Amino acid sequence: xxxxxxxxxxxxxxxxxKGLEKTKTGIFSKISKAVAGKSTVDEEFLDNLEExxxxxxxxxxxxxKIIDRLEQRVKQDKYINTAELNSILKDExxxxxxxxxTQGLDDFTIPAFTKPYVILxxxxxxxxxxxxxGKLAHQYREQGLKVVLGAADTFRAAxxxxxxxxxxxxxxxxxxxxxxTDPAAVAFETVNYAIENNMDVAIIDxxxxxxxxxxxxxxxxxxxxxxxxxxxxxxxxxxxxxxATTGQNAFEQCEKFSxxxxxxxLALTKLDGTAKGGVVIGISDQxxxxxxxIGVGEGMDHLQVFNKKAFVxxxxxx
Amino acid sequence: MFESLNTRLDKAFKVFSxxxxxxxxxxxxxxxxxxxxxxxxxxNYKIAKEFTEKVKEKALGxxxxxxxxxPGDLMVKIVQDELTQLMGGQAAGINIKADPGIVLIAGxxxxxxxxxxxxxxxxxxxxxxxxxxxxxCDVYRPAxxxxxxxxxxxIKVPIYKxxxxxxxxxxxxxxxxxxxxxxFDVVIVDxxxxxxxxxxxxxxxxxxKEGIQPTETLFxxxxxxxxxxxxxxxxxxxxxxxxxVVLTKLDGDTRGGAALSVKYTVGKPIKFISTxxxxxxxxxxxxxxxxxxxxxMGDIVSFVERAQEQFDEEEAKRLEKKIKKNKLDxxxxxxxxxxxxxxxxxRSLMNMIPGVGKALKDVDIDDKALEKVEAIIFSMTPYERxxxxxxxxxxxxxxxxxxxxxxxxxxxxxxxxEQMRKMMHMMSKGKMPKGFPGMDGMG
Lengths: 318, 443
Hints:
The complex is a heterodimer of chains A (318) and B (443).
Chain A: H1 9-35, H2 43-55, H3 60-77, H4 82-96, E1 117-122, H5 129-142, E2 147-152, H6 159-170, E3 173-175, H7 183-196, E4 201-206, H8 214-230, E5 237-243, H9 249-261, E6 265-269, H10 279-287, E7 291-295, E8 303-305, H11 308-316
Parallel strand pairs in A: 1-4, 1-5, 2-3, 2-4, 5-6, 6-7
Antiparallel strand pairs in A: 7-8
Chain B: H1 5-14, H2 24-40, H3 45-61, H4 71-87, E1 101-107, H5 113-127, E2 132-137, H6 144-155, E3 159-160, H7 168-181, E4 186-191, H8 199-212, E5 216-222, H9 229-240, E6 244-248, H10 258-266, E7 270-274, E8 282-283, H11 287-294, H12 300-309, H13 313-324, H14 330-343, H15 346-352, H16 356-359, H17 368-378, H18 382-386, H19 393-403, H20 407-429
Parallel strand pairs in B: 1-4, 1-5, 2-3, 2-4, 5-6, 6-7
Antiparallel strand pairs in B: 7-8
């Protein structure tokens, strides 16, 4: 429960809109163009729609799914104008975004009575794991929670330093055993540190790894197991960080990381670029894993709780 | 998750089965399939569209003279050739001839610039007998300078950095002065990651380029990038007019359509690929392999290379001797299994072999199969592992208990092992195929 719940919904919406601006103008203006001067949905429109969705990294399979459903609706309703079409599209995308995303969390809350709340952060190289951890830690600190960051990326050059700097910035505790130490041991001892020092949250950073590297994925399972050995029920959250610029490979990432660590939530980063982030729609549909956070900028508070409605609205609101 | 193009095309042409020609009518649907296959591999939608139009013309112009060739196969061949041609050409090296040669590295956040900078320095020093220096111009990301410092220590290439200076243009310029007076012949300038729409940061990279006049500017792209690759490649090209592209993280299982998107959009050659986390994993770009990869046709060359990475010459000689004497034992078998497991999971390995991925599309590959075999061997005594011939019923029973498998499983495994041993022994008398002696018997 968040006792220090801050009210910055307005600001948040602005940031999200800003972050998604490129997406929004892209999709919306194209759809308007596609329907302009038409009173019905024809083959050409559907082709255009396919182009729009696919160009946003939604992926062929998901796009075909959306189009098929749209066609069925059109068959029933016969006449469709722009506004109706927009709302139908919104509906369909809403449906595909996992039901898990309707949990109504609109802030960075952690469950009561779970102390320390342990979060394991995983993902391929360069998606922004460490930055996301820094931003997330900042959010918890803002609520007055005691946070420790565990440096279990002991492999990539200077990774420990990078997390250490974020710990200072976000004013959290920091647990490290230095570079090239056993990451499972770091994870174990971070949880231990959190318990002994009465921390509310422990966030554990891991080295980026490509999901097809068997040994590295096994190492990740081992890290997770060692956390669990120290504290039953932990990690309470396994956060897979996905880069919004990533294309269809995000599906494979989600699948393989889930196999290794039972991913419980997704964070989608770099949404402030020109990338559309459409890949989350298909992923959410297929894996039923909620998208929990989105990264919309480089600043410390440019991490937001993913809000399905806001996300879809931002895509289509003019 | 992705059907291979062949499967899709076969489906498209099935409608017209019996019709062994590519015609206006049947080509339309297949072109759509090609387009979707490309898009599924992350080729930009517009490019896929233009590309397939070209393919269509080529396909229609082609008489299918060989009656035995299915139109689907012919189409794939055309697509593959076109892709290879598009991504290839002018395989120029990098220009570092000036004194010093100056290489500027730019790209998005997390694309792998710093790691690549280290790899390039290492490559130039070791393979090209150059005397490079690395320059740390990422003054923003926490510990970015430390990261490059660590890498420079690893590969024993000096680094130029200015603690406290937050002006990358100045740092880069000073670095070049320093390099000149200290006889370095290549300067590699690593820069901060930046978004193409970040005006301030894009101005900065343009100023760096202006300020140091690099002989070679490289744009680093993550091979997993989706549709956005086009926007980014274009935006960076407009501002810094780079000379070549570097494709990173190709050791993943992405299809890598971004390679085509970038090449097609800006027409700049892909000069290097990056395929791992160690400093040696830098390679030149092979358009034919990339074409096959994008089309999901398997990548037999990569498969062989990955096998070779795990391949130990000494060990192979030792094995060959043992096979010749018909002395192969369970310990050897166990080692083989470990090697195979190190190469990756079974399905992704199978997918690398052309045709196999398609054939096994609906087959559930049991990744645990190898583990079961391992468990059986682990339940043997050291003596049994070295002396397969000593196996008898009471030993088999004990092993079955030990690993929790049925006696039939043990029987089957040992029989299989003996057959394999016999076969390999026979082959060794004739001609031994190089590579993995154990693969055939793995089932």
